[in-house]
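RECORD TYPE: inverse folding
INPUT: C-alpha coordinates
STRUCTURE:
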Protein backbone atom coordinates (compact mmCIF):
# COMPACT_ATOMS: atom_id res chain seq x y z
CA UNK A 1 0.00 0.00 0.00
CA UNK A 2 1.57 3.29 -1.11
CA UNK A 3 1.50 6.38 1.08
CA UNK A 4 0.05 9.59 -0.39
CA UNK A 5 3.59 11.01 -0.52
CA UNK A 6 4.83 8.00 -2.50
CA UNK A 7 1.90 8.24 -4.87
CA UNK A 8 2.54 11.96 -5.41
CA UNK A 9 6.17 11.27 -6.25
CA UNK A 10 5.13 8.55 -8.71
CA UNK A 11 2.66 10.93 -10.34
CA UNK A 12 5.30 13.64 -10.65
CA UNK A 13 7.86 11.23 -12.04
CA UNK A 14 5.40 10.04 -14.67
CA UNK A 15 5.03 13.59 -16.00
CA UNK A 16 8.74 14.20 -16.49
CA UNK A 17 9.53 14.63 -20.17
CA UNK A 18 12.26 12.78 -22.00
CA UNK A 19 14.21 14.81 -24.58
CA UNK A 20 12.27 13.16 -27.39
CA UNK A 21 8.82 13.94 -26.00
CA UNK A 22 8.75 17.62 -26.96
CA UNK A 23 11.41 17.80 -29.62
CA UNK A 24 9.71 15.31 -31.98
CA UNK A 25 6.86 17.74 -32.57
CA UNK A 26 6.44 21.44 -33.07
CA UNK A 27 5.16 23.64 -30.27
CA UNK A 28 2.12 25.81 -30.86
CA UNK A 29 2.39 29.40 -29.58
CA UNK A 30 -0.53 31.84 -29.77
CA UNK A 31 0.19 35.58 -29.94
CA UNK A 32 -2.88 37.65 -29.10
CA UNK A 33 -3.08 41.42 -29.20
CA UNK A 34 -4.43 42.99 -26.01
CA UNK A 35 -4.16 46.76 -25.98
CA UNK A 36 -5.05 47.38 -22.34
CA UNK A 37 -5.96 45.78 -19.03
CA UNK A 38 -9.63 46.63 -19.52
CA UNK A 39 -11.24 43.42 -18.36
CA UNK A 40 -13.51 42.94 -21.39
CA UNK A 41 -10.50 43.21 -23.68
CA UNK A 42 -8.36 40.87 -21.58
CA UNK A 43 -11.18 38.33 -21.33
CA UNK A 44 -11.64 38.39 -25.10
CA UNK A 45 -7.88 37.98 -25.66
CA UNK A 46 -7.65 35.03 -23.25
CA UNK A 47 -10.66 33.40 -24.89
CA UNK A 48 -9.17 33.85 -28.36
CA UNK A 49 -5.76 32.55 -27.30
CA UNK A 50 -7.18 29.39 -25.75
CA UNK A 51 -9.27 28.74 -28.87
CA UNK A 52 -6.15 29.12 -31.02
CA UNK A 53 -4.59 26.31 -28.98
CA UNK A 54 -7.57 24.06 -29.63
CA UNK A 55 -9.99 25.14 -26.91
CA UNK A 56 -10.14 24.51 -23.19
CA UNK A 57 -11.57 21.01 -23.65
CA UNK A 58 -8.38 20.02 -25.47
CA UNK A 59 -6.32 21.11 -22.46
CA UNK A 60 -8.41 20.23 -19.41
CA UNK A 61 -11.26 18.01 -18.28
CA UNK A 62 -14.27 19.05 -16.25
CA UNK A 63 -13.86 18.48 -12.54
CA UNK A 64 -10.07 18.70 -12.60
CA UNK A 65 -8.22 20.61 -9.89
CA UNK A 66 -5.98 23.27 -11.45
CA UNK A 67 -3.68 25.71 -9.66
CA UNK A 68 -3.09 29.19 -11.06
CA UNK A 69 0.52 30.28 -10.47
CA UNK A 70 0.92 34.05 -10.99
CA UNK A 71 4.11 36.04 -10.53
CA UNK A 72 3.77 37.65 -7.10
CA UNK A 73 7.31 38.82 -6.54
CA UNK A 74 6.78 41.73 -4.17
CA UNK A 75 4.23 44.10 -2.67
CA UNK A 76 3.38 46.37 -5.61
CA UNK A 77 0.12 47.65 -7.07
CA UNK A 78 -0.85 46.36 -10.53
CA UNK A 79 0.10 49.58 -12.32
CA UNK A 80 3.78 49.04 -11.45
CA UNK A 81 3.95 45.94 -13.67
CA UNK A 82 5.83 43.84 -11.13
CA UNK A 83 3.14 41.19 -10.68
CA UNK A 84 0.71 39.36 -12.93
CA UNK A 85 -2.15 41.76 -13.58
CA UNK A 86 -5.44 40.92 -11.80
CA UNK A 87 -7.38 41.31 -15.06
CA UNK A 88 -5.37 38.44 -16.60
CA UNK A 89 -5.77 36.36 -13.46
CA UNK A 90 -9.52 37.04 -13.39
CA UNK A 91 -10.05 36.20 -17.07
CA UNK A 92 -8.24 32.86 -16.79
CA UNK A 93 -9.98 31.94 -13.53
CA UNK A 94 -13.43 32.78 -14.94
CA UNK A 95 -12.74 30.67 -18.00
CA UNK A 96 -11.86 27.66 -15.87
CA UNK A 97 -14.87 28.05 -13.61
CA UNK A 98 -17.20 28.40 -16.61
CA UNK A 99 -16.09 24.95 -17.73
CA UNK A 100 -16.60 23.36 -14.29
CA UNK A 101 -12.86 23.17 -13.58
CA UNK A 102 -11.84 23.66 -9.96
CA UNK A 103 -9.38 26.53 -9.60
CA UNK A 104 -7.11 27.60 -6.76
CA UNK A 105 -4.11 29.91 -6.74
CA UNK A 106 -0.85 30.48 -4.94
CA UNK A 107 2.80 31.48 -4.97
CA UNK A 108 5.75 31.53 -2.59
CA UNK A 109 7.37 34.99 -2.70
CA UNK A 110 11.06 35.26 -1.79
CA UNK A 111 10.86 37.81 1.03
CA UNK A 112 7.29 38.67 2.03
CA UNK A 113 4.05 36.96 2.95
CA UNK A 114 1.92 35.76 0.07
CA UNK A 115 -1.24 37.27 1.61
CA UNK A 116 0.33 40.74 1.75
CA UNK A 117 1.50 40.70 -1.86
CA UNK A 118 -1.70 39.18 -3.21
CA UNK A 119 -3.75 41.86 -1.45
CA UNK A 120 -1.75 44.79 -2.83
CA UNK A 121 -1.43 43.23 -6.29
CA UNK A 122 -5.22 43.00 -6.56
CA UNK A 123 -5.52 39.22 -6.77
CA UNK A 124 -7.09 38.69 -3.35
CA UNK A 125 -10.16 40.73 -4.31
CA UNK A 126 -10.58 38.71 -7.50
CA UNK A 127 -10.18 35.41 -5.66
CA UNK A 128 -12.81 36.41 -3.10
CA UNK A 129 -15.21 37.52 -5.84
CA UNK A 130 -14.85 34.23 -7.72
CA UNK A 131 -14.56 32.12 -4.53
CA UNK A 132 -11.16 30.75 -5.50
CA UNK A 133 -9.28 29.27 -2.53
CA UNK A 134 -5.62 29.83 -1.76
CA UNK A 135 -3.47 26.77 -2.46
CA UNK A 136 -0.91 25.66 0.11
CA UNK A 137 2.50 26.90 -1.01
CA UNK A 138 3.99 26.88 2.49
CA UNK A 139 4.07 23.14 3.15
CA UNK A 140 6.50 21.24 0.98
CA UNK A 141 6.93 17.62 -0.06
CA UNK A 142 10.26 16.16 -1.13
CA UNK A 143 10.18 14.85 -4.69
CA UNK A 144 12.96 12.83 -6.31
CA UNK A 145 13.61 12.30 -10.00
CA UNK A 146 16.34 10.02 -11.31
CA UNK A 147 16.34 12.00 -14.56
CA UNK A 148 17.46 15.35 -13.17
CA UNK A 149 20.39 16.82 -15.08
CA UNK A 150 21.54 19.31 -12.43
CA UNK A 151 19.36 18.53 -9.42
CA UNK A 152 17.34 15.40 -8.70
CA UNK A 153 15.54 16.32 -5.50
CA UNK A 154 13.25 19.27 -4.79
CA UNK A 155 10.95 20.33 -2.00
CA UNK A 156 7.81 21.35 -3.91
CA UNK A 157 4.63 22.96 -2.59
CA UNK A 158 2.38 20.10 -1.52
CA UNK A 159 -0.72 21.54 -3.20
CA UNK A 160 0.99 21.26 -6.59
CA UNK A 161 1.62 17.58 -6.04
CA UNK A 162 -2.00 16.87 -5.19
CA UNK A 163 -3.52 18.97 -8.01
CA UNK A 164 -4.24 17.71 -11.52
CA UNK A 165 -2.17 20.45 -13.09
CA UNK A 166 -0.98 24.03 -13.09
CA UNK A 167 -1.50 27.11 -15.25
CA UNK A 168 1.61 29.29 -15.32
CA UNK A 169 0.86 33.04 -15.41
CA UNK A 170 4.26 34.78 -15.71
CA UNK A 171 5.12 38.41 -16.44
CA UNK A 172 7.60 39.37 -19.15
CA UNK A 173 10.40 41.19 -17.28
CA UNK A 174 14.15 41.57 -17.36
CA UNK A 175 16.37 40.05 -14.68
CA UNK A 176 20.03 40.72 -13.82
CA UNK A 177 20.90 37.06 -13.20
CA UNK A 178 18.94 35.19 -15.86
CA UNK A 179 18.56 38.07 -18.36
CA UNK A 180 14.83 37.37 -18.65
CA UNK A 181 12.26 36.19 -16.13
CA UNK A 182 9.36 34.49 -17.80
CA UNK A 183 7.59 31.15 -17.81
CA UNK A 184 10.43 28.85 -16.74
CA UNK A 185 11.70 31.04 -13.93
CA UNK A 186 8.18 31.76 -12.62
CA UNK A 187 7.91 28.19 -11.35
CA UNK A 188 10.76 28.83 -8.91
CA UNK A 189 7.91 30.13 -6.73
CA UNK A 190 6.76 26.52 -6.38
CA UNK A 191 9.61 25.97 -3.92
CA UNK A 192 8.10 26.86 -0.52
CA UNK A 193 9.08 29.70 1.75
CA UNK A 194 12.59 30.95 2.14
CA UNK A 195 14.32 27.85 0.79
CA UNK A 196 14.99 29.56 -2.53
CA UNK A 197 18.08 31.55 -1.44
CA UNK A 198 19.78 28.23 -0.70
CA UNK A 199 19.78 27.46 -4.42
CA UNK A 200 21.57 30.72 -5.17
CA UNK A 201 24.30 29.85 -2.67
CA UNK A 202 24.81 26.34 -4.02
CA UNK A 203 24.45 27.36 -7.69
CA UNK A 204 26.08 30.78 -8.13
CA UNK A 205 26.83 30.32 -11.84
CA UNK A 206 23.90 31.26 -14.07
CA UNK A 207 24.28 28.10 -16.17
CA UNK A 208 23.91 25.82 -13.14
CA UNK A 209 21.03 27.89 -11.78
CA UNK A 210 19.27 27.70 -15.16
CA UNK A 211 19.72 23.92 -15.33
CA UNK A 212 18.14 23.65 -11.89
CA UNK A 213 15.13 25.71 -13.03
CA UNK A 214 14.63 23.41 -16.01
CA UNK A 215 14.83 20.32 -13.78
CA UNK A 216 12.20 21.89 -11.51
CA UNK A 217 9.88 22.63 -14.45
CA UNK A 218 10.18 19.05 -15.64
CA UNK A 219 8.77 17.84 -12.32
CA UNK A 220 5.64 20.02 -12.39
CA UNK A 221 2.47 19.23 -14.33
CA UNK A 222 2.42 22.49 -16.23
CA UNK A 223 -0.59 22.33 -18.53
CA UNK A 224 -0.76 25.86 -19.93
CA UNK A 225 1.28 29.07 -19.96
CA UNK A 226 -0.30 32.50 -20.40
CA UNK A 227 2.35 35.23 -20.31
CA UNK A 228 1.24 38.73 -19.36
CA UNK A 229 3.12 41.03 -21.75
CA UNK A 230 0.45 43.70 -22.08
CA UNK A 231 2.94 45.82 -20.14
CA UNK A 232 6.45 44.33 -20.10
CA UNK A 233 9.35 45.49 -17.94
CA UNK A 234 12.72 46.51 -19.38
CA UNK A 235 15.93 47.76 -17.80
CA UNK A 236 16.26 47.31 -14.04
CA UNK A 237 13.86 44.40 -13.73
CA UNK A 238 12.26 42.43 -12.23
CA UNK A 239 11.03 45.16 -9.87
CA UNK A 240 12.14 48.67 -10.79
CA UNK A 241 12.50 48.66 -14.56
CA UNK A 242 10.46 50.85 -16.87
CA UNK A 243 7.28 49.56 -18.51
CA UNK A 244 6.94 48.99 -22.24
CA UNK A 245 3.46 48.50 -23.75
CA UNK A 246 3.81 45.33 -25.85
CA UNK A 247 0.00 44.88 -25.87
CA UNK A 248 0.41 41.11 -25.95
CA UNK A 249 -0.56 37.81 -24.34
CA UNK A 250 1.54 34.75 -25.22
CA UNK A 251 -0.08 31.34 -24.78
CA UNK A 252 1.29 27.82 -25.17
CA UNK A 253 1.59 24.48 -23.44
CA UNK A 254 5.39 24.81 -23.85
CA UNK A 255 7.14 27.21 -21.44
CA UNK A 256 10.41 27.19 -23.40
CA UNK A 257 8.62 28.21 -26.59
CA UNK A 258 6.85 31.03 -24.72
CA UNK A 259 10.12 32.42 -23.36
CA UNK A 260 11.95 31.92 -26.65
CA UNK A 261 9.21 33.73 -28.57
CA UNK A 262 9.33 36.56 -26.02
CA UNK A 263 13.08 36.77 -26.61
CA UNK A 264 12.60 37.15 -30.36
CA UNK A 265 10.05 39.90 -29.75
CA UNK A 266 12.46 41.92 -27.60
CA UNK A 267 15.43 41.24 -29.90
CA UNK A 268 17.38 38.79 -27.74
CA UNK A 269 18.82 35.57 -29.22
CA UNK A 270 16.81 32.93 -27.30
CA UNK A 271 19.88 30.80 -26.59
CA UNK A 272 21.35 33.63 -24.47
CA UNK A 273 18.59 32.98 -21.94
CA UNK A 274 20.03 29.75 -20.61
CA UNK A 275 16.71 28.37 -19.39
CA UNK A 276 15.77 28.27 -23.09
CA UNK A 277 19.03 26.62 -24.10
CA UNK A 278 18.93 23.95 -21.41
CA UNK A 279 15.15 23.73 -21.60
CA UNK A 280 15.42 22.46 -25.16
CA UNK A 281 18.50 20.35 -24.42
CA UNK A 282 16.82 18.60 -21.47
CA UNK A 283 13.49 18.07 -23.23
CA UNK A 284 11.30 20.66 -21.52
CA UNK A 285 10.33 22.36 -24.77
CA UNK A 286 11.38 23.90 -28.07
CA UNK A 287 13.61 26.93 -28.54
CA UNK A 288 14.45 26.89 -32.25
CA UNK A 289 12.11 28.88 -34.49
CA UNK A 290 11.64 26.00 -36.94
CA UNK A 291 10.15 23.93 -34.12
CA UNK A 292 7.62 26.60 -33.10
CA UNK A 293 4.40 27.33 -34.96
CA UNK A 294 3.06 30.85 -34.33
CA UNK A 295 -0.70 31.34 -34.59
CA UNK A 296 -2.86 34.39 -34.00
CA UNK A 297 -1.35 37.81 -34.63
CA UNK A 298 1.97 38.07 -36.51
CA UNK A 299 5.09 38.34 -34.38
CA UNK A 300 6.16 41.42 -36.36
CA UNK A 301 3.28 43.37 -34.79
CA UNK A 302 5.02 43.21 -31.40
CA UNK A 303 8.70 43.45 -32.34
CA UNK A 304 10.62 45.84 -30.07
CA UNK A 305 14.29 45.89 -31.09
CA UNK A 306 14.99 48.80 -28.72
CA UNK A 307 13.80 46.92 -25.61
CA UNK A 308 16.38 47.54 -22.85
CA UNK A 309 17.84 44.15 -21.89
CA UNK A 310 21.30 42.58 -21.56
CA UNK A 311 22.22 41.32 -25.04
CA UNK A 312 25.96 40.72 -24.67
CA UNK A 313 27.31 37.17 -24.81
CA UNK A 314 27.29 35.29 -21.53
CA UNK A 315 30.75 34.77 -20.10
CA UNK A 316 30.61 31.08 -19.21
CA UNK A 317 32.89 29.21 -16.85
CA UNK A 318 32.27 25.51 -16.49
CA UNK A 319 34.27 24.98 -13.30
CA UNK A 320 33.18 26.54 -10.02
CA UNK A 321 36.72 27.60 -9.11
CA UNK A 322 37.02 29.58 -12.36
CA UNK A 323 33.77 31.33 -11.57
CA UNK A 324 34.94 32.29 -8.08
CA UNK A 325 38.28 33.48 -9.42
CA UNK A 326 36.91 35.68 -12.19
CA UNK A 327 33.49 36.84 -10.98
CA UNK A 328 34.78 40.04 -9.35
CA UNK A 329 36.32 41.15 -12.62
CA UNK A 330 33.73 40.15 -15.22
CA UNK A 331 30.34 39.51 -13.58
CA UNK A 332 27.60 42.10 -13.37
CA UNK A 333 27.42 43.17 -9.75
CA UNK A 334 24.76 44.89 -7.62
CA UNK A 335 25.39 48.47 -6.53
CA UNK A 336 23.44 50.71 -4.14
CA UNK A 337 22.43 54.27 -4.99
CA UNK A 338 22.88 56.06 -1.67
CA UNK A 339 20.45 58.79 -2.73
CA UNK A 340 17.62 56.27 -3.13
CA UNK A 341 18.49 53.98 -0.22
CA UNK A 342 16.05 54.31 2.69
CA UNK A 343 18.22 52.26 5.08
CA UNK A 344 15.43 49.69 5.55
CA UNK A 345 17.83 46.74 5.62
CA UNK A 346 15.70 44.46 3.41
CA UNK A 347 18.72 43.70 1.21
CA UNK A 348 20.84 42.68 4.20
CA UNK A 349 18.14 40.38 5.53
CA UNK A 350 17.62 38.76 2.13
CA UNK A 351 21.29 38.09 1.34
CA UNK A 352 21.68 34.27 1.43
CA UNK A 353 25.41 34.26 2.15
CA UNK A 354 27.04 33.53 5.49
CA UNK A 355 28.76 35.78 6.34
CA UNK A 356 26.62 38.34 4.55
CA UNK A 357 27.86 39.75 1.25
CA UNK A 358 26.51 43.15 2.26
CA UNK A 359 26.19 44.52 5.74
CA UNK A 360 26.12 47.58 7.95
CA UNK A 361 29.86 48.17 7.97
CA UNK A 362 29.48 51.90 8.64
CA UNK A 363 26.48 51.82 10.98
CA UNK A 364 22.76 51.91 10.28
CA UNK A 365 22.77 55.56 9.28
CA UNK A 366 24.71 54.77 6.08
CA UNK A 367 23.74 52.37 3.23
CA UNK A 368 24.98 48.78 3.58
CA UNK A 369 28.25 47.99 1.83
CA UNK A 370 29.03 45.02 -0.43
CA UNK A 371 31.88 42.60 0.03
CA UNK A 372 32.17 41.56 -3.61
CA UNK A 373 34.52 38.70 -2.76
CA UNK A 374 31.59 37.17 -0.88
CA UNK A 375 28.81 38.26 -3.25
CA UNK A 376 27.55 35.50 -5.59
CA UNK A 377 25.61 37.91 -7.88
CA UNK A 378 22.23 36.30 -7.23
CA UNK A 379 20.57 39.75 -7.10
CA UNK A 380 18.21 38.64 -4.33
CA UNK A 381 18.97 42.01 -2.72
CA UNK A 382 17.85 43.88 -5.81
CA UNK A 383 14.61 41.90 -6.06
CA UNK A 384 13.48 42.85 -2.54
CA UNK A 385 14.70 46.47 -2.40
CA UNK A 386 11.50 48.52 -1.90
CA UNK A 387 12.98 51.80 -3.16
CA UNK A 388 14.73 50.69 -6.36
CA UNK A 389 18.11 51.69 -4.95
CA UNK A 390 19.96 48.59 -6.23
CA UNK A 391 20.93 48.18 -9.87
CA UNK A 392 23.42 46.11 -11.86
CA UNK A 393 26.82 47.41 -12.93
CA UNK A 394 29.39 45.82 -15.24
CA UNK A 395 33.04 46.00 -14.06
CA UNK A 396 35.60 47.64 -16.35
CA UNK A 397 37.06 44.33 -17.58
CA UNK A 398 33.59 43.08 -18.51
CA UNK A 399 32.96 46.26 -20.51
CA UNK A 400 36.29 45.84 -22.30
CA UNK A 401 35.53 42.22 -23.16
CA UNK A 402 32.10 43.16 -24.50
CA UNK A 403 33.67 45.85 -26.69
CA UNK A 404 36.11 43.28 -28.12
CA UNK A 405 33.15 40.97 -28.84
CA UNK A 406 31.44 43.77 -30.76
CA UNK A 407 34.62 44.52 -32.72
CA UNK A 408 35.09 40.85 -33.55
CA UNK A 409 38.41 40.56 -31.71
CA UNK A 410 37.08 37.71 -29.51
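DESIGNED SEQUENCE:
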Amino acid sequence: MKTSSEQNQQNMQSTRNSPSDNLQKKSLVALVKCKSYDFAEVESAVERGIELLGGLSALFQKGESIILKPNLLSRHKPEYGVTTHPAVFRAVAKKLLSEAINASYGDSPPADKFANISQVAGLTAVAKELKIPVADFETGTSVYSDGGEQRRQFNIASSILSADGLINLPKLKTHHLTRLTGAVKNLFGCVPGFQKPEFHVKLPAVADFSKMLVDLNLLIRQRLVIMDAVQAMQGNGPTFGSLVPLHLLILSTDPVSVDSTACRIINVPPELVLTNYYGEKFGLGNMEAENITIVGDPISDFYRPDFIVQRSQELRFNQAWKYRLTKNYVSTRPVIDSKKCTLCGACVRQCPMSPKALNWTKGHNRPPKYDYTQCIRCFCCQEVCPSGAITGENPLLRRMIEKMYRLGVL
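NOTES: Residues 1-23, 317-321 have pLDDT under 50 and may be disordered.
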